[in-house]
Amino acid sequence: MTRSIPADFLFGVATAAFQIEGAAFEEGRTASIWDAFARVPGAVANADNGDVACDHYHRYAEDVALMKELGIQTYRFSTSWSRVRPDGGAVNAKGVDFYSRLVDELLEADILPWLTLYHWDMPQALEEGGGWTSRETVDRFVEYAMTMHDALGDRVSRWTTLNEPWCSSFLSYTGGEHAPGRHSVEDGLLASHHLLLAHGRTVEQLRERDAELDIGITLNLTVAEPADPDDAADRDAARRIDGQFNRWFLDPLFRGSFPADIVEDVRRVDADAVASFTDAVHEGDLETIARPLDFLGVNYYHGEFVSGTVPADPPPSVPSGATYPTGSPYPSHEGIHWHDRGLDRTSMAWEVQPEGLTRLLQRVAADYDVPALYVTENGAAFDDEPIDGSVDDAERTDFVRDHVAATLDARERGVDVRGYFYWSLLDNFEWAWGYGKRFGLVRVDYDTQVRTPKRSAREYARMITERTI
């Protein structure tokens, strides 16, 4: 059955600077935390570093032309702090000029530029001075943000402050799985607060400069479900996952407070870390963090199906986590077991659960006074290979159709969700997985840099043009 797509529903694609640009140390750019982390032995699979990535820095015009060919309406990209203000210091004119040329190319192609200020690539020099655990980093970030507005504010109307602060705080400073690779409960808590404070102060400054800008933030959110809804331990496991992953950022942004239940969960494990965090939240910080926004970006990849009782003989680990016994890097996860409920999985072993996206959007809209919503990332990695010069990625094609439909289901149920961005335009440097996982609508041959639109790209283009699923 054919389904219509509203004419005002916006279709886009998303990328991140470090994952696609390359030109790591060209024209004034200096090392970011990801340049340093990728050189730590064993930190990144299937790659030595991201120095070349997709070579977008040199091929941006080709990539914009490709987006135009596919009918992409808006492009969500990030700017590199390390390219614009190397080492967190003076403005690098050549770095700024690259983004100015990119924006001009997008506008010429009638593609709406959607700028993300922070997609995890802090200058390494700032990390060596404390990184996001230091309140001074907030000041440096606001300087960088205003540099970007000085350069692009006349042409860019959509501004995202941060992408997925859960990843750039807890995954990076507590779990050690992302740059800078720290393993500290205290550092993760401090980083989460300073990231949100940097967001709030940037919103204030951008509003002062131009009240007409559309400003928001993007959070990676999940649907946490108890394996047995009648089991108190399972319900508590879902509460803890939801609290640490979702509410830890939604609550301060839209309610002006951190979730008290999660603060107490962590205090029972590491009281000193919570004391340090509490001291770091100064008077007025939460009011700054909760400044009104024009949109909330929601990134969704999979749900969480969890139990609070660890089996005596647990089955093999499943993707969205594993069994976390005492000693988990994330205090709120201790004693939680992730169950396999038999859903299809991507090559990341993530469950394919489109209806979870519908429920997530409904929940966020029901529980919080949120502005307009956009699905700013949703995508899947599959092990697709070219055959006779084409890539018939049927699984990804179905994934895109199903998740766009799930987004529209939420819209039809009254949620003000206005658009969908597929992650990602290109196969790219996929963080700790290096070049080993491919999310792109467009295949990239990393040896030749040849771009090949996959079947999913052609279907996405058809959906945009014909406005049907």
From TrEMBL:
<dbReference type="GO" id="GO:0005829">
    <property type="term" value="C:cytosol"/>
</dbReference>
<protein>
    <recommendedName>
        <fullName>beta-glucosidase</fullName>
        <ecNumber>3.2.1.21</ecNumber>
    </recommendedName>
</protein>
<keyword id="KW-0378">Hydrolase</keyword>
<dbReference type="InterPro" id="IPR001360">
    <property type="entry name" value="Glyco_hydro_1"/>
</dbReference>
<comment type="similarity">
    <text>Belongs to the glycosyl hydrolase 1 family.</text>
</comment>
<dbReference type="Pfam" id="PF00232">
    <property type="entry name" value="Glyco_hydro_1"/>
</dbReference>
<dbReference type="GO" id="GO:0016052">
    <property type="term" value="P:carbohydrate catabolic process"/>
</dbReference>
<keyword id="KW-0326">Glycosidase</keyword>
<dbReference type="InterPro" id="IPR018120">
    <property type="entry name" value="Glyco_hydro_1_AS"/>
</dbReference>
<dbReference type="InterPro" id="IPR033132">
    <property type="entry name" value="GH_1_N_CS"/>
</dbReference>
<dbReference type="InterPro" id="IPR017853">
    <property type="entry name" value="GH"/>
</dbReference>
<dbReference type="GO" id="GO:0008422">
    <property type="term" value="F:beta-glucosidase activity"/>
</dbReference>
<feature type="active site" description="Nucleophile">
    <location>
        <position position="377"/>
    </location>
</feature>
